Amino acid sequence: MTDASFGGVTPDAARRLLLGAVDAFAERGFHATTTRDIAGRAGMSPAALYIHYRTKEELLFHISRVGHEQSVAVLAEAVEQAPDCAARLAAAVRAFVRWHAEHHTTARVVQYELAALEPEHYELIVALRRRSEEILRGVLEDGVASGRFAVDDIRGTTLALMSLCVDVARWFRPEGRRTPDEVGALYADLALRMAGDCGAAPAGVTSSSG
Amino acid sequence: MTDASFGGVTPDAARRLLLGAVDAFAERGFHATTTRDIAGRAGMSPAALYIHYRTKEELLFHISRVGHEQSVAVLAEAVEQAPDCAARLAAAVRAFVRWHAEHHTTARVVQYELAALEPEHYELIVALRRRSEEILRGVLEDGVASGRFAVDDIRGTTLALMSLCVDVARWFRPEGRRTPDEVGALYADLALRMAGDCGAAPAGVTSSSG
DNA sequence: GTCTATATCACGATAGAC
DNA sequence: GTCTATCGTGATATAGAC
User: Does the keyword DNA-binding apply (chains A, B) (predicted)?
Assistant: First the structure.
């Protein structure tokens, strides 16, 4: 099992099913995954799944909700702790990317299997996702207002930043040449460049801003 | 039908099936799409599909191959025509993004349904995709060598650029607030910033190539 | 709560008439 | 080449014993 994010889920069988579903969905996709496969990974019979979850889709919804809540929390925490807006952007992107790399299995399900959710579940998840976008956009807006960043199209740049961070879940492999932290650091630098950050690059010239 | 990229496919029924498959795969994903659905969109019976294609997977392979070949061609052409390396990067990203936005239906299938391909087909497609990456990396390398760009991690930055461009296919909607050309222009500007382009106008003044 | 066994259904793909 | 009809398979989900 790739992920420790569902440690709080009880009973034990429900958690094992959840972890099995994450792995299976990430590998094959929701529709190509069978309930037999999920139950098998959890060491149970196919029927046992339905004791803990009403449908296969409910499993996906559970994974998506917990995953999104976690990534939003990570992002929000990173933004809170940084002193100025350049540090906030760097910390936000770094933390968000690191989460998507470390939890790439969960993240892949969370980000790329949304279409398989039932309409009302989908709406709920999209609302969560919008919060991530708003946090990032807020950082960009502050930086532009304070003169630290130079961005014409804030919405468009936010969208691009989200794209960049989220897509890490698609290509990241733990056996690859970069650690989650290294990808986070690279992407934080790229984000500052995209934001037109003038104060950072050459020699540690930092102008504090609100 | 959203796409005119398969105009050369004959006979007519084979093309209609291909176009139906593109739409269906883009909407629901490969595994959630039924052969009945594809045939229905083409105005035919389920059995007719098997006159023109051996399996459902063969349809996906055909779409993926043609789509990838087109996007690589668009990218290669853009790179060839530009005079210097900054113009090359801008033109490459602009053209590549525009293709992914204009052909977002095809592009979505091409980029996000690869996992459903049979192993040998998958390998063939991945080889095509690698060529896109190499073109972009080449532009970055030239720019760094000539001193025009400032990039530490060329491979990583290439990966990020690819991510950014390709992900356009996931979120782009024709009814959204930006045209394919506008997204292309924005992303070309962002790409120059990511490359640390020093010779361009001061940060924030988006005088990108248009 | 978990199992074995199974109901029910829809899928991909084929057969054979025209 | 296209149709109607259908085969065989494997899917989700349920029933009922333990």
Answer: yes
What is the rounded distance in angstroms from the CA atom of residue B67 to the CA atom of residue B55?
A: 19
Tens digit of each residue's pLDDT (9 = 90 or more) over B32-41: 999 999 999 9
pLDDT of residue B97: 98
Among A31, A157, A163, select the one facing B163 at the smallest CB separation.
A163
User: Which residue from B115, B157, B190 is facing A160, i.e. has the nearest CB?
Assistant: B190
* Count of helices and strands (H, E) across chain A: 9, 0
| Number of other residues whose CB lies within 10 A of the CB of residue A7 | 9
The Å distance, CA of A51 to C1' of D15, is 13
State, as a whole number of angstroms, the distance between the CA of A35 and the C1' of D13: 10
Q: In sequence order, which ranges of A103-208 are alpha helices (DSSP H)?
A: 104-112, 119-145, 154-171, 180-194
Cβ atoms of B141 and B154 closer than 8 Å? yes
Positive or negative: CA dihedral B55, B28, A106, A77? positive
> Rounded to the nearest 5°, which phi and psi values hold at A45?
-80, 155
Domain B7-53 adopts which CATH fold? Arc Repressor Mutant, subunit A (1.10.10)
The CATH architecture to which A56-194 belongs is Orthogonal Bundle (1.10)
